[in-house]
Amino acid sequence: MIVTIAFNPSINKLAVIDGLEVNGENKVQDYRICLGGSTIYTAYIIKLLQGEPHVLGFLGGIGGRYIKNFVDKNRIKSDFVYNLGESKSIYRIVDSINGTETTLLDDNMVIDEKDKKNFKHKLQNQIKDTKLIVLGGDLPNGIDFSIIDDINKMAKKKDLKIIAALKGQELRKVLAFNPYGIKISKDNITDLVNVDTLNDDKNYIIKKLYDILIENHIHYIVYDADDEGIYILSKNKICRVVIDDKSEIFDGIGAGDALVGAFAISIERRYEQEKMAKLMMACNIAVKNSKYPIICNRKDIDNYYNKVRIEEVMNGKKGFIE
Coil, strand or helix: which one is 18? Predict the structure, then answer.
């Protein structure tokens, strides 16, 4: 079983207005709601690839019920801690006439000591049947890095692997725990690497990530470089996977988290690095090319898996290939 921890899952709401009138009444022309990016998508991919995900995390309010309904509908096992507050919601108001977009963030749920204790108890109940733990997303109000520290201690006692798909200071701090794998994206690469835009070395960022991998005894680092492809780094090899036929890309929500699902199942099944890379790219593109509420299906993943292309960036014998 793979325990997937969704600390602060969200829902995304979109309202389209024809000419937004401030201090006036606005009629909504189109309205959509979907699951926001989180490790719920990670669990979905693990399930789709015939793994056994079990989701833990914090939910509350109407948004929380929407998320729980998604999980149950897709037959994903879960054991959430329910809070009196409302799960995070991201509202986007699009003015189709003036071409403006306004975002409202409702992230006011506060986790108390009772909730934290309940969460640890649930994790303790599941950890005995677990091979791997995935940490992802941001932390809700009332929780600090100490909860990740506690999770790490519990995992170490059982000799469990941890994949960290975190951001900001949580990602930087988790390096001290020597996680088995980490995932980072282009939009938060500066959390780990001081990007030098004047450096003309095309592998500058990859070399910096490789140094981090070696210094912190990490087995794998996955770098989602968006249009540049996906890099997967290990001690003896670095490869990049790209796809030429990307077809139509819709909203892309959850694509980065889907990639982590493929990452987790690959580690659990001990896939070779090239197969791991191809599966991650296939899942990433399959989600980008699907329209919610369809996330993607197995046929999509298999189709893209056969279209991706692997490039070697570094190997232990030759070094970096310029």
Answer: coil
